[in-house]
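Students often ask why inverse folding is considered easier than folding. One informal answer: many sequences map to the same fold, so there is more than one right answer. In these notes we will look at a single instance of the problem. The structure comes first.
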C-alpha cells in the first residue's frame, strides 16, 4: 500500500519512494535562496509547510511551493498537525532553542542552521531535548556533505601533509549596515555568522579541540555596525598546534584557508561559499611536489538535506550533530569573553565522543537555480551561507 509520503511525491511529479516532509521555519535569504530550491534537487525530501510572520512570504511562498503556511504563534499547531516529519530551522541564532526544543520534544527531526545557538547553555538544552525524544538533530554544516571538503579532511587525517601544525584563514564580506545582522551586537556579528566556517574546518582538520582562545576586534573607520566588524582570532590546540583566522563585515568577499604540516601544505579556495559556479578547489604542495584539484559544483543545501533525510529514513545517527554544534559554540563564546575582557581565555580539554565527518557523507545533488526575486523584507544576501 502506498505511503502518504509516496502519494504526495507522485501527486507533484517527483520520483516515488519514501520522502521526509520538511517545514521551513523562517523564510529569510538562506531559506529562499538556498534551502528551498535545494530541496527540489534531492531524491528523498519534500517541503510541506512554512512558518513566517511576513504576510507577503506567507502568501506567495506558500503558493509557489504548495506549502501549508503557519504564523510563529501557530508553531505548536504545526508540530501537532502531522504535516511534517522534520523542520529546517533558520531563525536568528538566538531563537534556535525556542523552536528546536519543542520540535524535538514532539519527536520532530530538526535540521538546524549554524551556529547552533548563542550560549553553551542553550546548546545543552537542545541536545537534552534530542536525547530525551530520540528525534534526529543535525546542525547544517553543508560542507560536511561536499566531496572536496571531505577529501581534504581525509588527506590530512591520513598524514599526507605530515603532522598538521598551522592553520590560517580569512573570511570577509561587505555586509550592508542596514541588514538586521548588523544591528544585534556580537550575537549577530561576523564571529558567530562567519566564524563557524574556519573554526569548524580547523577543528576537523586537526581532529582535536582548542584549549586557549584570544581575539582582537576592530571597527573599520567610517563603518557603522553595532559590533566589532572585523575580528582576528587565535586558537591554541593540544600539542602546540595553532590556528589564526580573521572574519569581517566591512571589506569585499575574501575566503579560503591554508593548513601547513611537517611534509607540506594544502591551500583551499573557494573553501566556504556555495552557489552556481562555485567549485571547492585546493592546491597541495607535499615534499616539494605540487598538485591542484577542483570539484564539481553541487547544490550544497540539497546535499545536506539528502544526507539528513537518509539518516532519518534509515534510522542512522547524523554526523554533524548537536555535539559538533556545541563544540563550535563553546569557542565562539570564549571569543566573546576574550573581546570583552581583553584576556586570553582558557578552555577545559574536551574530546568529541561521536564520529567526525567521513567521505561517505558526500552527496552530488545538481545545483539548483536561485529564485529570480526575494519575497518580503531583508533582501540583503546572507553572510554565512
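Output (designed amino acids):
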Amino acid at each position: 500500500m502506498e505511503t502518504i509520503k509516496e502519494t504526495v511525491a507522485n501527486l507533484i511529479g517527483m520520483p516515488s519512494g519514501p520522502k521526509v516532509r520538511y517545514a521551513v521555519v523562517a523564510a529569510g535569504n538562506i531559506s529562499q535562496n538556498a534551502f528551498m530550491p535545494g530541496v527540489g534537487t534531492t531524491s528523498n525530501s519534500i517541503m510541506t509547510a512554512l512558518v513566517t510572520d511576513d504576510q507577503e512570504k506567507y502568501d506567495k511562498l506558500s503558493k509557489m511551493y504548495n506549502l501549508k503556511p503557519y504564523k510563529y504563534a501557530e508553531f505548536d499547531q504545526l508540530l501537532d498537525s502531522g504535516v511534517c516529519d522534520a523542520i529546517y530551522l533558520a531563525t536568528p541564532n538566538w531563537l534556535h532553542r525556542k523552536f528546536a526544543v519543542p520540535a524535538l520534544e514532539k519527536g520532530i527531526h530538526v535540521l538546524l542552521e549554524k551556529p547552533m545557538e548563542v550560549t553553551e547553555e542553550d546548546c545543552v538544552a537542545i541536545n537534552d531535548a534530542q536525547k530525551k525524544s530520540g528525534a534526529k538533530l543535525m546542525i547544517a554544516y553543508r560542507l560536511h556533505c561536499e566531496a572536496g571538503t571531505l577529501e581534504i579532511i581525509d588527506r590530512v587525517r591520513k598524514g599526507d601533509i605530515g603532522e598538521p601544525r598551522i592553520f590560517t584563514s580569512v573570511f570577509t564580506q561587505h555586509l550592508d549596515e542596514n541588514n538586521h545582522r548588523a544591528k544585534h551586537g556580537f550575537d549577530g556579528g561576523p564571529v558567530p555568522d562567519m566564524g563557524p566556517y574556519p573554526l569548524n574546518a580547523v577543528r576537523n582538520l586537526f581532529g582535536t579541540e582548542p584549549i586557549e582562545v584570544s581575539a582582537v576586534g576592530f571597527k573599520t573607520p567610517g563603518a557603522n555596525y553595532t559590533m566589532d566588524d572585523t575580528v582576528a582570532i587565535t586558537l591554541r590546540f593540544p600539542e602546540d598546534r595553532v590556528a589564526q583566522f580573521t572574519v569581517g563585515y566591512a571589506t569585499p568577499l575574501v575566503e579560503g584557508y591554508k593548513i601547513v604540516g611537517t611534509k607540506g601544505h594544502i591551500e583551499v579556495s573557494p573553501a566556504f561559499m556555495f552557489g552556481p559556479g562555485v567549485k571547492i578547489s585546493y592546491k597541495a604542495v607535499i615534499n616539494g611536489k605540487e598538485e591542484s584539484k577542483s570539484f564539481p559544483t553541487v547544490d550544497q543545501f540539497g546535499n545536506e538535506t539528502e544526507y539528513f533525510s537518509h539518516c532519518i529514513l534509515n534510522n542512522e545517527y547524523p554526523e554533524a550533530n548537536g555535539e559538533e554544534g556545541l563544540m563550535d559554540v563553546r569557542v565562539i563564546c570564549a571569543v566573546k569573553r576574550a573581546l570583552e575582557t581583553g584576556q586570553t581565555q582558557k578552555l577545559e580539554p574536551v574530546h568529541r565522543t561521536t564520529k567526525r565527518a567521513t567521505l561517505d557523507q558526500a552527496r552530488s545533488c545538481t545545483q539548483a537555480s536561485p529564485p529570480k526575486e526575494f519575497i518580503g523584507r531583508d533582501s540583503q544576501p546572507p553572510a554565512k551561507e
